[in-house]
Amino acid sequence: xxxxxxxxxxxxxxxxxxxxxxxxxxxxxxxxxxxxxxxxxxxxxxxxxxxxxxxxxxxxxxxxxxxxxxxxxxxxxxxxxxxxxxxxxxxxxxxxxxxxxxxxxxxxxxxxxxxxxxxxxxxxxxxxxxxxxxxxxxxxxxxxxxxxxxxxxxxxxxxxxxxxxxxxxxxxxxxxxxxxxxxxxxxxxxxxxxxxxxxxxxxxxxxxxxxxxxxxxxxxxxxxxxxxxxxxxxxxxxxxxxxxxxxxxxxxxxxxxxxxxxxxxxxxxxxxxxxxxxxxxxxxxxxxxxxxxxxxxxxxxxxxxxxxxxxxxxxxxxxxxxxxxxxxxxxxxxxxxxxxxxxxxxxxxxxxxxxxxxxxxxxxxxxxxxxxxxxxxxxxxxxx
Length: 384
Known about the structure:
The protein is of the alpha/beta class.
């Protein structure tokens, strides 16, 4: 049986709830997609030339030091697909008299290096293990592996050397042995809005959503000036948290390693919002209140979500766009009831109206339009 992350590591990962995804590589120098080598059909020799003016230091070591100084936990992306290594692609293996095991040994060696050279690791984000997907079917010379990745051995190595690190494998199917987090690329669990990539229902306690700040890819795109608005980003953060998922928001730094001003501005807005409302996100789990609009029949609702703090039992109701009604029904979980309740709007610290109705199992929360403002509004709900 393949090991899983430690209980401590799993809890810490779920408590984090919000993180940054960063894509920065040779493709950034050109300001094109992270799949540049494939899209433009670069030869290995030509692509290697992009590394000539690089600063000849270990950027991962410097990033690890900076994260440690800032109290930020660091994770690593690992691609199983490798267009550069002379043993990955079949034509290269023949040309270099290599076998598939030469690549697998290199891949596992890279994982060992990441596990041992940079201190504590929070997450390993594995990519490129995509059985029977379009890249493999249409472009076998670039994508199809020459044998077994020995995936379970790689995951076992991670759990042995970094027992508190979670493993997320971006396979778009049911998670495999040793995989701790189930990922939903560009999507919130259960929504399936991204090219039908995320049809698999949640099968892990820990879930994850990743999304790009821009519209056209993960790496720095020199000509992409379309940045997602902060309201869209905070809504996705809240929908993810309400589904029990962490939210990784991607940035693609420039060739100089700088985050573009529009991206910095959006991250700053999210940071300011979280400083006020973060208690409804950090340390929470999927909401346990069933929300509905009393004005609709059958019951339906849009623009709201709920989370809960599992330690205190405090509920949070989030209103993140104009579709959120003034009055919201919040059904307590089956078998629970409330003798009294209190609701507080986090951004001003003042209470809003809340009533206990039904058989003491329905809360009625009212947040007037004049009390709302900013990117989203979070209401702390305490029941007794």
